[in-house]
């Protein structure tokens, strides 16, 4: 989003404009590198509880990255992404619990399972406008909880499943919380890089075209249902991967952790973080993690009130969310720096 | 005595400005034809008069200034606009469409009797509508829908009737019939009419005066005879040399 | 056989409740092309109001009347304050705003009345009407009568009043409605007010059957979505018929398909929505979908 805004603001398509864009790009990589360095350094400075919280931020960020592909880039609405998150989480839990697979193996399998389910559900839903997708995904998320409770022998029913957390290898010298943090960080970085390259590819351009104008995209030869279904499956895959890491980190799954509230909170986090931008999911992850934990002391309902109001406010004043605002701020800072 | 006086009217959509200072006046009970090529701003002029686009300038109808008012307020002032595409309420019945035209008229017992009388009068102009009263308006033919749109506009008992391309998409015979009825209406009801029309020949046939619009400005004004006699107009819009 | 009829009647009772919430959804969709994801939560909030009024000692029917009046005003206010600023925005934006409203109203109810369940008084007498071996509880009967009454009033409003005609005109062609002098903005607000009122009826009817709590309407909303999808989102008649079918289907599936039982019944609307989208996307009574530009 911020890219396009910058392009239109450049007065003429001159060499200077192109250079400026290259410079902005370089700045972005410098910021990212600094962020990554800080992310690697943080767990050695924070108490275990904080490390755990940031681990969860990364987990949510991966899920939001997937949701962002669908909502922010393809313009389709999912109100049930918690269900794919749950598929990944339960998939990993069952693989660890029943088949005692080594935990690194669970990640690709959980992601693949979520992808396939996303594909299967996306096929019928994507033939129609985004509205119906929202209905189907919401119905799916509501249906999931009783379904998980029913198949007790596999899922542990209402009691859920408790699992051992991945132990840090001795050579790393890391504590458990730090090791889990780095696992989540590795998955998050991989997810960010693949989402980034995906958006730069032909597929990304097709999705943007669909978001901006479905009818026009179709006349330009974009196969609507194909790309929309694909975007849905991919976003399910990211959510599934996030769910898998969730199981590693928490060591426990139960149906009520994946109630429809989770799906709606994910969408809320993404909207507030920023639709269609790369940093939106990360900011959204921070939001999903910290807003409830900070505001819950005031009232049990406070996070909901805050999220509800913020979503509406964001859609009114800043449809690109926090990411858009920081992007705009960065832009104006660069501009004032140049002037001096 | 002029019924409608437009002064220095500007209008557009977003950043795109379409009208650049149009001024004209139409006498009470007269028909005024607006001619011009595609994209000249004819439709926008009508939309500006009925409040459907943002405007700058003044539009006086009798004593009231209409500029900047909302479409529903302007309709309540007695301006009936038959829009491009006819504005039919497709799933509603023909009768419901007609009654909607009288929506803003008072709901007293006497007024309702008047509305019923008007309905009868409109059946007089357009007998075909009477046979279709209970039918969904969307099932009418193009010509019938145009008649319905004009009938709906008359149900307002308008002081000013705006007609946008009544001939669009209709067979020549139907169009000619339609213009004959518009002339009858104008003569019998003394309604002031502004008609935008591609078919300059027909429009000039019922108009007392005409204006030629090009790229948002009036480039030529005069009586219908003067415009018809103008060589350039003849070449551009009438398709023959004088 | 009697057992089957028994289930059928029970299904119709449930279906009537879904129908009224579906009707609320359809009302708003017709006017604005918006599916209001917060409709169930608004109904839940109204139900809390009714509970509050009765808890304050008001007789039930007076409390209901007051609740419906407040809901009507609240619906209009929400349209003016929350929805108006995003009128004409992309569908995604509008849907997200209604989801924001969903979260906010849900949490606000939790804040005011806590998340603990409350008993909601049943306005209908216990016991049942027995005829030919068939037992129809007064509660089910009452639901059917109330919903029938609401439908009847709406029908009169839309088909036989000037305001109703104006509302239908706005729903089919807002630009043209403006040109005949209808105040479209107020009509849209009126639509939201009506929808909130009809939704409130569904909340008040369902609360005695479930328990009153902030998440009460989540499940009902899904059934109402299924009903509206089945009937066609642009057809009020469809919403009613769809609601009754969904209610019956759910009850029969729960009673006769052993695997489904009472816990997996909430899968029925999902199956119905998917089935309708695949076989007849416009629904039973809907007009074939026309893309809104």
From TrEMBL, chain A:
The keyword Transmembrane applies. The keyword Iron-sulfur does not apply. Keywords: Cell membrane, Membrane, Transmembrane, Transmembrane helix. InterPro entries: ABC_transp_permease, LivM-like. One of its GO terms (cellular component) is plasma membrane. GO terms for molecular function: branched-chain amino acid transmembrane transporter activity. The chain crosses the membrane at residues 29-46, 52-71, 78-96, 102-123, 130-148, 179-199, 230-253, 259-289, 301-318. It is found in: Cell membrane. This is Branched-chain amino acid ABC transporter permease. It comes from Nonomuraea cavernae.
Automatic annotation (TrEMBL), chain B:
One of its GO terms (biological process) is L-amino acid transport. InterPro entries: AAA+_ATPase, ABC_transporter-like_ATP-bd, ABC_transporter-like_CS, BCAA_Transport_ATP-bd_LivF, P-loop_NTPase. Residues 4-240 form the ABC transporter domain. Gene3D superfamilies: P-loop containing nucleotide triphosphate hydrolases. Keywords: Amino-acid transport, ATP-binding, Nucleotide-binding, Transport. SMART domains: AAA. GO terms for molecular function: ATP binding; ATP hydrolysis activity; branched-chain amino acid transmembrane transporter activity. Belongs to the ABC transporter superfamily. This is ABC transporter ATP-binding protein.
Automatic annotation (TrEMBL), chain C:
One of its GO terms (molecular function) is transmembrane transporter activity. It is a multi-pass membrane protein. The keyword Membrane applies. It comes from the Bacteria. Signal peptide: none annotated. The chain crosses the membrane at residues 12-38, 58-82, 94-116, 136-158, 188-210, 216-233, 240-260, 266-285. GO terms for cellular component: plasma membrane. It is found in: Cell membrane. Keywords: Amino-acid transport, Cell membrane, Membrane, Transmembrane, Transmembrane helix, Transport. Its main location: membrane. One of its GO terms (biological process) is amino acid transport. InterPro entries: ABC_transp_permease, BCAA_transport_permease. Pfam families: BPD_transp_2 (PF02653). The keyword Transmembrane helix applies. Belongs to the binding-protein-dependent transport system permease family. LivHM subfamily. This is Branched-chain amino acid ABC transporter permease. It comes from Nonomuraea cavernae.
């Amino acid at each position: 989003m911020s890219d396009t805004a910058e392009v239109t603001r450049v007065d003429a398509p001159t060499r200077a404009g192109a250079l400026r864009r290259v410079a902005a790009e370089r700045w972005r990589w410098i910021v990212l590198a600094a962020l990554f360095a800080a992310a690697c350094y943080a767990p050695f400075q924070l108490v275990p509880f904080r490390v755990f919280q940031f681990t969860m931020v990364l987990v949510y960020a991966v899920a939001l990255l997937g949701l962002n592909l669908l909502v922010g880039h393809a313009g389709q609405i999912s109100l049930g992404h918690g269900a794919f998150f749950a598929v990944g989480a339960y998939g990993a839990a069952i693989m660890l619990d029943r088949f005692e697979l080594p935990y690194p193996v669970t990640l690709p399998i959980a992601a693949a399972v979520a992808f396939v389910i996303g594909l299967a559900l996306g096929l019928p839903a994507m033939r129609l406008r985004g509205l119906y997708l929202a209905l189907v995904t919401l119905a799916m998320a509501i249906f999931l909880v009783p379904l998980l409770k029913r198949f007790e022998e596999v899922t542990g029913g209402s009691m859920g499943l408790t699992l051992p957390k991945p132990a840090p290898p001795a050579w790393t010298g890391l504590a458990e919380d730090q090791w889990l943090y780095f696992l989540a960080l590795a998955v998050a970085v991989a997810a960010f890089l693949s989402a980034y390259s995906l958006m730069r590819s032909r597929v990304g351009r097709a999705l943007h075209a669909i978001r901006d104008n479905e009818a026009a995209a179709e006349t330009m030869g974009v196969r609507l249902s194909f790309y929309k279904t694909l975007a849905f499956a991919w976003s399910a895959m990211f959510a599934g991967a996030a769910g898998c890491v969730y199981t590693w980190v928490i060591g426990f799954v139960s149906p009520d952790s994946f109630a429809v509230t989770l799906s709606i909170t994910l969408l809320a986090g993404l909207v507030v973080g920023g639709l269609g931008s790369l940093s939106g999911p990360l900011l959204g992850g921070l939001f999903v993690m910290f807003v409830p934990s900070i505001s819950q002391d005031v009232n049990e309902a406070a996070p909901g009130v805050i999220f509800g109001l913020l979503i509406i406010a964001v859609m009114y004043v800043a449809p690109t969310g926090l990411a858009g605002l920081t992007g705009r701020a960065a832009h104006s800072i660069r501009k004032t720096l140049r002037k001096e | 005595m002029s019924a409608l006086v437009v002064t220095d009217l500007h209008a557009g959509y977003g950043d795109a400005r379409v009208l650049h200072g149009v001024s004209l006046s139409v006498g009470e009970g007269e028909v005024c034809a607006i001619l011009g090529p595609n994209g000249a701003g004819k439709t926008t002029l009508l939309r500006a008069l009925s409040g459907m686009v943002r405007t700058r300038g003044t539009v006086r109808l009798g004593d009231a200034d209409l500029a900047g008012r909302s479409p529903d307020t302007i309709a309540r002032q007695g301006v009936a606009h038959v829009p491009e595409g006819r504005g039919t309420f497709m799933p509603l019945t023909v009768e419901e469409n007609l009654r909607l035209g009288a929506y803003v008229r008072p709901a007293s017992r006497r007024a309702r009797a008047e509305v019923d009388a008007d309905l009868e009068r409109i059946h007089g102009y357009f007998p075909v509508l009477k046979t279709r009263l209970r039918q969904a308006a969307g099932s009418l033919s193009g010509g019938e829908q145009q008649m319905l749109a004009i009938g709906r506009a008359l149900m307002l008992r308008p002081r000013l009737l705006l007609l946008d391309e009544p001939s669009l998409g209709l067979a020549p015979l139907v169009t000619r019939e339609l213009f004959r009825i518009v002339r009858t209406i104008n003569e019998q009801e003394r309604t002031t009419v502004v008609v935008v029309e591609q078919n300059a020949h027909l429009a000039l046939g019922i108009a007392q005066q005409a204006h030629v619009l090009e790229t948002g400005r009036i480039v030529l004004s005069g009586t219908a005879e003067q415009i018809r006699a103008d060589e350039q107009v003849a070449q551009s819009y009438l398709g023959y040399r004088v | 056989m009697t057992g089957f009829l028994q289930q059928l009647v029970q299904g119709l009772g449930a279906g009537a409740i879904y129908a009224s919430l579906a009707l609320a959804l359809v009302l708003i969709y017709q006017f604005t092309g918006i599916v209001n994801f917060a409709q169930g939560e608004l109904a839940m909030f109204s139900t809390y109001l009714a509970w509050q009024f009765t808890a304050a000692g008001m007789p039930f029917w007076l409390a209901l009347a007051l609740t419906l009046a407040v809901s009507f005003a609240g619906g209009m206010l929400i349209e003016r304050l929350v929805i108006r600023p995003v009128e004409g925005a992309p569908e995604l934006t509008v849907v997200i705003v209604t989801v924001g409203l969903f979260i906010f109203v849900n949490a606000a109810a939790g804040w005011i009345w806590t998340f603990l369940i409350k008993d909601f008084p049943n306005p209908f007498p216990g016991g049942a009407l027995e005829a030919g071996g068939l037992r129809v509880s007064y509660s089910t009967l009452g639901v059917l009568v109330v919903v029938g009454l609401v439908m009847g009033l709406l029908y009169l409003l839309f088909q036989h009043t000037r305001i109703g005609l104006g509302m239908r005109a706005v729903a089919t062609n807002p630009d043209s409605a403006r040109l005949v002098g209808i105040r479209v903005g107020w009509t849209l607000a009126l639509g939201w007010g009506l929808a909130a009122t009809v939704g409130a009826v569904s909340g008040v009817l369902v609360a005695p059957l479930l328990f009153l709590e902030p998440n009460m309407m989540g499940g009902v909303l899904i059934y109402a979505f299924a009903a509206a999808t089945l009937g066609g989102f642009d057809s009020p008649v469809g919403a009613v018929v769809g609601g009754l079918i969904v209610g019956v289907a759910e009850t029969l599936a729960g009673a006769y398909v052993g695997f489904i039982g009472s816990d997996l019944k909430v899968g029925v609307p999902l199956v119905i929505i998917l089935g309708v989208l695949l076989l007849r996307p416009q629904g039973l009574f809907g007009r074939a979908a026309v893309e809104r530009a």
